[in-house]
C-alpha cells in the first residue's frame, strides 16, 4: 500500500465511521416510532441513503486493501 | 441500460440527493459559526464524510451511465 492509498484509506475509514454513526441514530429513531409521517419519511430516506454510502465506502475500501 | 441498472441508478440518485441535502445543512451550520467546539468538530466531520459519500455515488453513477 503506497502513501497515497494509506491516506485515502484513513479518510474513507473516518467517513465510514461517521456515516455509520449517523445511520445508527436514524435506525434508533425508526425503532422509537415516535416520528410523524413527513419526518418519518425523511428519516427513512436518510437511513437508506446512509446505508448505500456506507456500502459504497466498504466496496471502495476492499479495492485498496 | 438494462432494468437492473435503471433501478440501481434511481436508488443512487435518490441517495445522492438526500445526502447532498444533509450536506448543505451541515455547511450552512458551519457558515453560521454558532456551534461550540465539540459540536463544530462533529459537524465538520459529518460534512467531510457526506462530501465523500456524494462523490463516491457520483463516480458510481458515471460507471452506469
How would you summarize what this structure contains?
The structure is a homodimer of 65-residue chains. Chain A has helices at residues 3-32, 37-64. By secondary structure, chain A is mainly alpha-helical.
What topology emerges from the helices and strands here?
2 copies of one chain form a homodimer.
Chain A: H1 3-32, H2 37-64
Helix pairs in contact in A: 1-2
Describe the structure in your own words:
2 copies of one chain form a homodimer. Chain A has 65 residues and is mostly helical. The first copy, chain A, is built from 2 helices and no strands. In chain A, helix 1 packs antiparallel against helix 2 (37-64). The first copy, chain A, is elongated. The model of chain A has no long low-confidence stretch (mean pLDDT 91). At the A-B interface, helix 1 and helix 2 of A face helix 1 and helix 2 of B.
Q: How many alpha or pi helices of chain A?
A: 2
- Counting DSSP E segments of at least 2 residues, the number of strands of chain A comes to 0
Radius of gyration of chain A: 15 Å
Outline the biggest β-sheet of chain A: none
Task: Record keyword descriptors for this entry.
homodimer, mainly alpha, 89% helix, 0% strand, elongated
Amino acid at each position: 500500500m503506497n502513501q497515497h492509498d494509506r491516506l485515502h484509506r484513513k479518510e474513507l475509514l473516518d467517513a465510514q465511521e461517521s456515516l455509520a454513526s449517523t445511520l445508527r441514530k436514524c435506525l434508533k429513531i425508526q425503532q422509537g416510532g415516535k416520528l410523524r409521517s413527513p419526518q418519518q419519511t425523511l428519516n427513512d430516506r436518510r437511513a437508506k441513503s446512509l446505508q448505500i454510502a456506507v456500502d459504497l465506502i466498504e466496496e471502495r475500501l476492499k479495492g485498496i486493501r
